[in-house]
Amino acid sequence: xxxxxxxxxxxxxxxxxxxxxxxxxxxxxxxxxxxxxxxxxxxxxxxxxxxxxxxxxxxxxxxxxxxxxxxxxxxxxxxxxxxxxxxxxxxxxxxxxxxxxxxxxxxxxxxxxxxxxxxxxxxxxxxxxxxxxxxxxxxxxxxxxxxxxxxxxxxxxxxxxxxxxxxxxxxxxxxxxxxxxxxxxxxxxxxxxxxxxxxxxxxxxxxxxxxxxxxxxxxxxxxxxxxxxxxxxxxxxxxxxxxxxxxxxxxxxxxxxxxxxxxxxxxxxxxxxxxxxxxxxxxxxxxxxxxxxxxxxxxxxxxxxxxxxxxxxxxxxxxxxxxxxxxxxxxxxxxxxxxxxxxxxxxxxxxxxxxxxxxxxxxxxxxxxxxxxxxxxxxxxxxxxxxxxxxxxxxxxxxxxxxxxxxxxxxxxxxxxxxxxxxxxxxxxxxxxxxxxxxxxxxxxxxxxxxxxxxxxxxxxxxxxxxxxxxxx
Length: 473
Hints:
Blueprint: H1 9-20, E1 26-28, H2 29-42, H3 50-53, H4 57-76, H5 79-85, E2 89-91, H6 98-106, H7 119-134, E3 139-143, H8 160-167, E4 174-178, E5 195-196, H9 201-211, E6 216-218, E7 233-237, E8 243-251, E9 257-272, E10 282-297, E11 300-303, E12 309-312, H10 328-337, H11 341-347, H12 355-362, H13 369-380, H14 387-405, H15 410-421, H16 430-441
Parallel strand pairs: 1-2, 3-4
Antiparallel strand pairs: 5-8, 6-7, 7-9, 8-9, 9-10, 10-11, 10-12
Helix pairs in contact: 10-13, 12-14, 14-16, 15-16
């Protein structure tokens, strides 16, 4: 009654325990109805006190506006909504015969008092007994400040008659009475704080296998990450090799460890517009971030499927990210050539961060072949190009073209091979753009020189012709 919006530390602990699965909270429907009625009644016809009426007109107007807002809030208040939003289960009134309830009142058995009062309290107790029958092995906590349930007024101990009644049903479980939720300490799931970690390498493979049990992950919520104007159904399939973004771990009270991990991988996303013909369905390979929670204990590897979130992978990852990077070897080769600290930062940001700045700086330096190899390796690993990557490709192509004019090395030979095959690479592929520029600068023969606009073409799926087959590269 005093906290209708369920705020404060006690409720916060209860909500966390509900979310962690260590606690189930049940409220009888008639309790929720009683709270709703009393909250609305207590906040109806809010009037200003006498001293407030002596305040300046502007103050009175502000106070009256606040009073009106309180009344409007109270008129819309529904305890079932507030409880349900925090995971509390609303339970219907138990089916018990009037004869049984009346006989209990006649016998003055608790929670009926000596005057025979306590009808609603008796219904609450019958709810408790029904819950015990459903969970005889569990710890049952009954929260009520009503004297009818206590052995003596204010004792906080369950009445012996009620305890005996519950004990006849309980097996390995127990029951305990609390007068308010502030006395109750919710059961904890975790035995330690969350700490950053690097999980075992096989965890990532196990996580992907659990999320894609038959090769497909149904993800209807992913449409929000793709800026689609209307909800669509979606499936994710053909997952690539997972890459660790971050991972946090906590010890569990019952043994084992709980991980909260984000992985990045390339997978095929199929969007299905439910209200449109199948011909307009779309699919593409996208780089995705998948955040999941899983536990590793004596019973094995378990993924909490209801705590899995998918999103489009961002192009920018903060520098403090310490995730293992599968491109580390390629970028290390580039660093050996680019000894300058500023250029070393460029080399470490090729795949994700500050691509436009990288392009501007790279344009002022020769492009070593080891750096071209690093970029080719990134392309092989499925990094999808965007506008920033295109600008980087243009700078690489420009410089590579100037190099190729006086160089008969691997870049020029690759350009010659592209020209020999008659392949026109689009500019969005880094290596393809560099090789194309090298071919143009070296004035090598090409079947597409008659139509310069052809260099902007891509295949029907938006993929590079050269990059679509690793053997071409």
